[in-house]
Design brief:
By secondary structure, this protein is of the alpha+beta class. The chain has one domain: RNA polymerase ii, chain L (Rubrerythrin, domain 2). The chain is globular, with a radius of gyration of 11 Å. Bound molecules: zinc ion.
């Protein structure tokens, strides 16, 4: 069952199936938030974004 993800850049909602790459279909941004998320996962994603921004 696909999950709804919210784009971290443009806020668009997309269904992403388990084998699909996590990527916004509107703006191709690669950080997506799970819609049914809890705070610990949200914080984990923030840490991931921090790592990515250090790498770029
Ligand atoms: Zn987007």
């Amino acid at each position: 069952m696909p999950c709804l993800y919210i784009c971290g850049e443009c806020g668009a909602e997309h269904e992403i199936k388990p084998k699909e790459p996590v990527k916004c279909k509107d703006c191709t941004y690669r950080i997506m938030y799970k819609k049914r998320t809890d705070k610990s996962i949200y914080i984990y994603l923030i840490i991931l974004i921090h790592h990515f921004s250090n790498m770029i």
